[in-house]
Specification:
single chain; alpha/beta; 8-stranded mixed β-sheet
């Protein structure tokens, strides 16, 4: 099977942790162990988030007044390279006989996308309400609630086309484990003349991953984060995990924008387009999610209605 695995930013830097390299390295080591367990049996492509890291770079860039701050597309590229390097290194340690490749990935967006004028994607650290309001005043940031705190939010346009897709396909075909489309890829526009230039935005990592998995015709898409499943009524006494569902059923619920909602949307798009399974859950449960034993499993039909379509889930269907 070809499995596309998306590592959420909160799986690489846990909430409340400073985005220091050694902390990231420790978390990525655990992520690499979970990925390696799957990669020993299946072909794997890995994507990852970059929200905390790109926010940190943006703050560092603004603190140095001798040059203009780097635009978000350049910071996206920097984080994609840095995080990809750490993931690749740890995967090489876990899979010494496997070819691991990190690929900077440009993803085309529509210059007329209304999302470019609507900042909703959280990046950077979590602040108290007082800190966030002061930063918004001092730096001109848009801010929004995120869990119990606040974060900077930036535009997040829809991914339309992966420019390096032929290269990714070639690498997968020869058996390489590819780390790509990190942080949602580098957002670019392509002019009518064919020239490429970056856009001041951050593409949602989960939607970019769904596009990638669809274009690769992956057999499964795993969206891994720091929670064990998708919940209804999240953060309330009535919270309840969803173990198995369909896109149609899942779309009846509301989820937090910029957090679980993009994962749900990405999973639904992939399943609806390919007819293959998607799973959402905790990083360390990756192999069990693929088997259908943990997390939230999304299929076109309930597996018990048509188990022969999903042989890796039949153990749950009696």
């Amino acid at each position: 099977m070809l499995v596309v695995i998306a590592l959420g930013g909160n799986a690489l830097i846990k909430r409340g942790q400073p985005p220091e390299v050694e902390i990231q390295r420790q978390n990525i080591r655990l992520a690499a162990q979970a990925i390696a367990e799957i990669a020993r049996e299946h072909r794997v492509v890995v994507t990852h988030g970059n929200g905390p890291q790109v926010g940190l770079l943006a703050m560092q860039a603004e603190s140095y007044k001798q040059v203009k701050p780097y635009p978000l597309d350049v910071l996206d590229a920097e984080t994609e390279g840095a995080i990809g390097y750490l993931i690749e290194q740890e995967l090489c340690n876990q899979l010494p006989d496997k070819q691991i490749v990190t690929l900077l990935t440009q993803i085309e967006v529509d210059p007329c996308d209304p999302a470019l004028a609507l900042p909703i994607k959280p990046i950077g650290a979590v602040y108290s309400e007082t800190e966030a309001k002061q930063l918004a005043k001092d730096r001109g940031w848009a801010i929004a609630p995120d869990g119990k705190g606040y974060r900077r939010v930036v535009p997040s346009p829809e991914p339309r086309r992966i420019l390096e897709l032929p290269t990714i396909k070639l690498l997968v075909k020869v058996g390489a484990l590819v780390v790509c489309a990190g942080g949602g890829g580098i957002p670019v526009i392509v002019t009518p003349a064919g020239s490429i230039r970056g856009v001041e935005a951050v593409i949602d990592k989960d939607l970019a991953t769904a596009l990638l998995a669809t274009e690769l015709q992956a057999d499964a898409l795993l969206l891994l984060t720091d929670v064990d499943a998708v919940y209804t009524n999240w953060n309330t006494p009535e919270a309840k995990p969803i173990s198995r569902t369909t896109p149609q059923q899942l779309r009846n619920y509301s989820f937090a924008p910029g957090s679980m909602q993009p994962k749900v949307e990405a999973a639904c798009r992939f399943v609806e387009t390919t007819g293959n399974m998607s799973g959402i859950g905790k990083l360390e449960d990756a192999a069990e999610i693929l088997k259908g034993d943990r997390g939230t499993i999304i299929n076109l039909l309930d597996c018990c209605d048509l188990p022969e379509l999903f042989p890796y889930l039949t153990s749950k269907c009696g």
